[in-house]
Amino acid sequence: MRDRADRTGWAKALLYLRIALHVAGRYGVRPRAFGWNPLRYAVFLGRALRLLLAFRHDKPMRTRQGWKLNLYVPAYPSAAFFHTIEAKLLFRPPGPTTVVYSMTKACQYKCPHCYQRNDKGADAEEAQLLATARRLQDIGVALFDIEGGEPFMRYDRLLALVRALDERSEIWVNTTGQGVTPERLEELRRGGAAGLMVSVHSPDSSLHDAFCGVPGAFETACACVRMARKAGLAVTLNSVLSEEELQRGRLSELMALADELGCHFVQLIHPKPSGAWLGRDDQMQRGGAIIRQVEEAHRHYNSGASTCITALAAQVFEERPDMLGCTAGAIDRFYVNANGELQPCEFLNISFGNLARESFEVVYGRMRTAFPNARTDWLCCTQASEIHRLFVESGSKHTPLPWELTRELVAGWDRGEPTPLYRKLRIYEGDDAGGPLGPVQS
Ligand code: SF4
Question: 182: closest CA among 172, 174, 170, 190?
């Protein structure tokens, strides 16, 4: 079976139909899950379809695990795919889909945009790291984006973490490529890893090297991609392209490079005023024109008009108000940093507590209280100046802001308008969740 193919047009519509029929059949034989109520089952199907159709602007990509409708939706028909559907539509409250899970702060690169540049503290104890990861699977996390620092700098720990997770989650590892070998990739794939996200911040080798502060970084990244493809792993290129490069049309060069290397996705990440860039105002790509340009590119590269097989996952498209909005705070995603701080998003330098000092239930519960339902404001942009102010005024030497300061921030914040998609799904508090046709509490 080919592990890299795309679907557009009618082929994509047929894939959606196949998934819809499979979901209907799989849950149709479980009437107990719907309280023996056919109406509940029909509502569940309607919600599942609405949720999946949110990704209709994306291009399904085939990996060894199956068809990925979106970079952050586990491949169909994997166990992780169905874990996503159940956590979102049958758990009460709904579970998050993705965690960005930092397992070490060790890194030799000096990227200027690092969102954890000011984070301090030793890496969490390995026992805590593994126990938390398993706990996250239980609350619904179906996609682990394991990151560092550079995870391959603590390879044994990375392998132990991958092996600790079961098939309910799809596992991706973020890397610069440093420390990657064919043997390690083979071991990770056998352990359950689905793919690598490899950082390439410019298609121009000298610009990427300069950005990372490491000569040869570009070659290291490309060699890593080739090794990963040979090992049968899926690959995403992660890129924070500068505004200047976007204006010069460099995204097409990046897509061509990704296609040539056999990548499944390019994830275009919008620059954020967080971490090393906390307090920064310029070059954050806030202008409407640049955002429209990226949205247009997202549509193009995910359509039949593109000659690239590689799909584009542009963050500014996926976080549009009429798409998913801001999914921080475990609406869909959240972040655990290397020493166990629980954050609503990797780009928000605030913490709801440290998992080494307080129980998971307490810390996670605080975060969910601050994020009862989905909203549309990009908090990494709208709250950045307030986070920076608290950081400066408190005289903090490091991030994330501790719970005492985070509490002050979240007490009065405005997260924007409700996200229409989630409002229509009616699964969150305030969106009529738990009504007569809500999920059955198991
Ligand atoms: S804060 Fe919200 S909008 Fe910003 S990156 Fe995180 S999830 Fe996306």
Answer: 190
Give the residues across from 172 on adjacent strands. 145, 195
CA distance 73 to 46: 18
Ligand 1 pocket test: which of 326, 348, 417 has the largest number of ligand atoms within 8 Å of its C-beta?
A: 326
Number of residues that make up the chain: 442
Contact 177, 221 (CB under 8 A): yes
Contact 238, 269 (CB under 8 A): yes
Q: Which three-class secondary structure string do you get for 369-406? A: HHCCCCECCCHHHHCHHHHHHHHHHCCCCCECECHHHH
Q: Where are the domains of the chain?
A: 9-84, 85-442
Residue of 278, 324, 348 best suited for mutating to test ligand 1, as the one with most atoms within 8 Å of CB: 348
CATH code of the domain made up of 85-442: 3.20.20.70
Rounded Cα distance between 150 and 348, Å, is: 20
pLDDT tens by residue, 166-177: 999 999 999 999
Report pLDDT for 343: 98
- The pLDDT tens digits of the residues spanning 85-111 come to 999 999 988 999 999 999 999 999 999
